[in-house]
Amino acid sequence: CLIHFYKRRTMPSVSVKDVNQQDFTVALAAHFKKSGKMKVPEWVDLVKTNVGKELAPYDEDWFYVRCASIARHIYIRSPVGVSTIRKIYGIRKSNGSSPSHWQKGVGGVARKALQALEGLKVVEKDQNGGRRLSSQGRRDLDRIAAQIKAKSKAAAAAAAAAAVQA
After folding, report:
1. Which of 118, 125, 140, 157 has the most other CB atoms within 10 Å of its CB?
2. Does pLDDT of 95 surpass 70?
3. What is the per-residue pLDDT across 128-152, written as a single tens digit (0 to 9) for each?
4. What global pTM score does this model have?
């Protein structure tokens, strides 16, 4: 049957859920940084990521990583607002010898990250509130996931060839 013939010949699509989330977040952050279009706030090197933290992040590219992580989360579950992102990045605040308590993430970082993703046309505002992935953003994220999947397949094939020769 021709329908089954054509269905078999199409390449299987790769989504964000098909790749390792850490590899994907690092690759997307590198893509955001390389594009140079993301609007990064000037206070990024001074701010803490949570009230319960004692120090600012050591990684100077942490804002790109945070934006990539938020974009991945919006891909998987949307719509997402600032309060949801604050909840995602909450931590246990250490009170020394007193019991620790859960603390929400910083709202300014979440808001600026969403605005930066909106500026890149990765996310758009949802009519019911919050933000959701745009069609261009979904296409970009799927393309990066496909690149990671191809790279991991090539690495696996190289490792298998090395194991056969050894």
Report:
1. 140
2. yes
3. 999 999 999 999 999 999 999 999 8
4. 0.85
The 10 Å Cβ neighbour count of residue 47 is 16
Distance CA 122, CA 140 (A): 8
DSSP string, the chain: -HHHHHHHHSPPP--GGGS-HHHHHHHHHHHHHHH------TTTTT--SBTT-SS--S-TTHHHHHHHHHHHHHHHS--B-HHHHHHHT-EEEEETTEEEEEEPBPHHHHHHHHHHHHHTTSEEE-TTSSEEE-HHHHHHHHHHHHHHHHHHHHHHHHHHHHHHH-
Which DSSP string do the residues of 44-68 spell out, in sequence order? TTT--SBTT-SS--S-TTHHHHHHH
Return the pLDDT at 27: 95
